[in-house]
Amino acid sequence: MARSGKRGSRDGRKTREPATFVPETLTRKGFRIRGLGPLPERFDPMKATARQLAAYRLPRRPDAKTEPRLRALWDRVMSRTQLWIAPEFEHREHIKHGPARGSGRRALTARRGSPGVSNATSNNWSGAADFSPAGKPYGFVGGQWTVPSPNTRADGAYYASEWVGIDGWNSNDVLQAGTETQITKILFITAEQVYTWWEWFPAGEVKINNLPVSAGDVMYCLICADTTSHAIVYFSNQSEGVGTRFEITPPRGTTLTGNVAEWIVERPTVGGSVANLTDYVACYFDECIAGGAGNIDNLSGASLITMTGTGGATLSEPAQENDHVVKLNWRKSS
Predict the structure, then answer these.
(1) DSSP secondary structure code for residue 324 in this structure
(2) 215 and 200, same structural domain?
(3) CA distances (Å), origin 263, targets 5, 93, 167, 206
(4) Which residue range is the domain that position 63 belongs to?
(5) pTM for the full model?
(6) Are residues 293 and 215 in the same domain?
């Protein structure tokens, strides 16, 4: 489901209705956002030509013979996305996601295994990571998950971020997008927030205000970076049948490395401190794929990451179900 090529033609004729763009925004952090608008009335991606898909900035249609699994995934995601909306953004600089790290602010620790790295621990990430083959950096990553419910019995604010992304382990940038499940409890008053977001670290989180999402919804996200400084993000709420897509660039001085792709539950940094982890119970990532330069990988060689807290206590623990599914289990809040 990697991104289509440049604008083409419709039924052999020049495309008359190119993708509708929301005006590009340059933020003070130096990154640019350009939302893509609704599809034309009666436009059906399932019947569109390859050139039409490219013109409207939709993911290319995989070949059914050479890429049967990807084609089945494309058919399912695109057929269930009945409405494409223009995204509305809110930059939330007080919330950051960013690279994996060990205890304190040290680098992620791991014991080397085969293949890749096994038994990794981090104080902010939990999930699975795939390292790209030598000389073949990742240019896209995709995954699907059911949005968990945020829970807590104790007073305070608790967060869990569920996302797919590229970079952040042995690299200083992270290109990532996902959902946020937050709960705040004070005495008998409880407030919950569930929303979608994206981030190209080191810039902060950018919330998508108008894409509907609730706990229990099935979300699919595909991130395609066609260069080290430009990407398109595709989000689809498969339960609601609503999707959005937009083009982004990194903050000043940042480029994509492409050394690793991830499927992660994270406790983000809020107001400069790593947040408490909400009791999300469990989160499944499925349809996990990543690739670039002709290679497509799944979880067959993935490294699993356990989130730890004070004294090395396990907060969130991964379990690989098969080559395309990883389950994350909540263990403790902090």
Answers:
(1) S
(2) yes
(3) 26, 23, 11, 19
(4) 15-87
(5) 0.90
(6) yes
